[in-house]
Automatic annotation (TrEMBL):
Membrane-topology annotation of the record: Single-pass membrane protein
Record's GO cellular component terms: mitochondrial inner membrane
The protein's name: NADH-ubiquinone oxidoreductase B12 subunit
TM annotation in the entry: 54-72
Localization annotation: Mitochondrion inner membrane
Reported function: Accessory subunit of the mitochondrial membrane respiratory chain NADH dehydrogenase (Complex I), that is believed not to be involved in catalysis. Complex I functions in the transfer of electrons from NADH to the respiratory chain. The immediate electron acceptor for the enzyme is believed to be ubiquinone.
Keywords from the UniProt entry: Electron transport, Membrane, Mitochondrion, Mitochondrion inner membrane, Respiratory chain, Transmembrane, Transmembrane helix, Transport
Native organism: Westerdykella ornata
Length: 94
């Protein structure tokens, strides 16, 4: 006589864990099971723009201030001796 094999497949798990349900829940369209866990990195305060705008603090203010300085220098601080150097004979040192 041969011993009969008992099938245990129909018996439920005592922990309630079902690997088939876990596999079905973790699937998505791209096939990346970690995509939903990584999604927070690219939303809200972590968007590409929000990460970039804090990279150069004060750059906007500095650019405007430098532009104002260049305009003020051209308008108010004219140099009367353009093109004349010390060896040119126009400036005399005594």
């Amino acid at each position: 006589m041969r011993p009969t094999r008992i099938r245990l497949a129909g018996r439920p798990s005592i922990t309630g864990f079902d690997p088939k349900k876990l596999a079905a829940a973790s699937k998505n369209a791209k096939g990346d099971p970690w995509a939903r866990y990584e999604a927070w990195r690219y939303t809200g305060p972590f968007t590409r723009w929000n990460r970039f705008k804090g990279s150069f603090p004060g750059l906007g203010i500095a650019t405007v201030a430098f532009g104002v300085y260049l305009v003020a220098e051209q308008l108010f601080f004219k140099d009367d001796h353009h093109g004349h150097d010390v060896q040119g004979g126009h400036t005399h040192i005594s």
